Amino acid sequence: MNTDEMTDTTVDGTALWQGQEVRVYAAGCDLGTGLVDDLTVDGSIVWIVFGGAEPRRMFLEEDAARYTVLG
User: What is the mean pLDDT of residues 7-34?
Assistant: First the structure.
């Protein structure tokens, strides 16, 4: 997903807050849904906790991850 495909509900890290449920897209892949566990004030680093046994994952601004806010 590139920036041309962002919509009102698909955003970068600057529009997120802790506890939001999101679907994560990075490197052209849908990585699934998770919760925003933490993020820097400027949204350049976002930590997502995915369900299951996978630990939280960090996304950097240069990863160009996009998040679809659910609910």
Answer: 90
Domains and CATH numbers, the chain: 3-69 (2.30.30)
> Pick from 27, 34, 26: which is nearest to 56 by CA?
34
One-letter amino acid at 47 equals W
**Residue found by looking up tokens 């849904």 in the block:** 33
Q: Quick check: 1 pLDDT over 70?
A: no
Rounded Cα–Cα distance for residues 60 and 37 (Å)? 14
DSSP E strand boundaries for 1-71:
10-11, 21-26, 29-39, 45-50, 57-60, 66-69
Q: How far apart are CA 66 and CA 26, in angstroms?
A: 7
pLDDT (tens digit, 9 = 90+) per residue, 22-57? 999 999 999 999 999 999 999 999 999 998 777 899
